[in-house]
Write a structure and sequence with these properties.
mainly beta, 3 helices, 18 strands
Length: about 270
């Protein structure tokens, strides 16, 4: 009995010592740019945390090629963090039925898992979506896309738009993570399938010629020239939407596979 009491006192002492030596502090949202994709409303999310305490959130519609943008401003006063999560309440002064609440929890080293809720004036959730935000050290992926295509957008949107030809933008879900995808399909020259790696300012591009395209009924099969990325594409066209599968293989071994959805960009 005496030994049991001594051991118990020892563990209590260790617990108190540990709490004093390593106090648990609330989470902190560091200054910087975070970006990610919500597949619920097919939008790109950008949140900019600034050292001056004034922050910004952007929601950009992917299918519009980022021409439709919703902007939200908030400050440190709107952020409340504990040891497990940060909650941000953004009030829309012009429309009290379009307030935004963000619940952020840490994920991996440089990412956050986010639950975003649109709330009414009583704080009741109207719409909820979840997504991952990754730390972006350079310019946003949206700027990367615009920089890549701004000088060619007019010519790309004028591609003959029958069958699957044209300029498309959408989302590639690869390894469980959604990423931005562009697809320019030409009937008479080299075409490109481009993945924008979220948070990395980096792209994977696979190209193909008309000779590498075959059609079996409503299925379009494409063999690309990339050694290890998106060697094979299987595509179905539904009106103004392309849906399909991507396979990355090397020497007969599948390295990655993903599913994508693309919308045609028009002038």
């Amino acid at each position: 009995m005496f030994n049991f009491i001594r051991v118990s006192i020892f563990f209590v002492a260790v617990i108190f010592f540990s709490n004093d030596a390593w106090p648990i502090e609330p989470l902190k949202l560091k200054a910087g740019l975070l970006e990610g994709i919500s597949e619920s409303d097919f939008s790109y999310k950008l949140i900019e945390f600034n050292a001056n305490g004034q922050h910004r959130m952007f929601t950009l519609k992917i299918a519009s090629a980022f021409r439709k943008v919703k902007f939200r401003a908030f400050s440190d006063h709107d952020i409340n963090c504990d040891i497990t999560a940060c909650v941000i309440n953004i009030v829309n002064e012009h429309n009290p039925n379009e307030n935004t609440r963000l619940i952020m929890t840490p994920h991996l080293d440089n990412a956050l898992q986010v639950m975003e809720m649109s709330t009414d004036h009583n704080g009741q959730a109207i719409f909820t979506q979840t997504y991952q935000l990754d730390k972006q050290q350079k310019q946003s992926t949206v700027r990367e896309f615009v920089h890549m295509y701004k000088d060619r957008l007019e010519s790309l949107t004028s591609i003959r738009q029958n069958e699957f030809y044209g300029f498309w933008i959408g989302v590639l879900n690869i390894d469980g993570k959604p990423e931005l995808l562009s697809f320019e399909a030409h009937p008479d020259k080299t075409s490109h399938f481009v993945r924008f790696v979220n948070g990395e300012s980096f792209t994977n591009k696979a190209s193909f010629t008309p000779a590498n395209v075959s059609k079996v009924g409503s299925l379009i099969e494409i063999e690309t020239d990339h050694l290890t990325f998106a060697n094979k594409l299987l595509i179905h066209k539904h009106n103004a939407v392309l849906e399909g599968y991507m396979y990355s293989t090397y020497k007969g071994t599948t390295l990655q596979k993903g599913v994508f959805r693309l919308y045609r960009i028009k002038q």
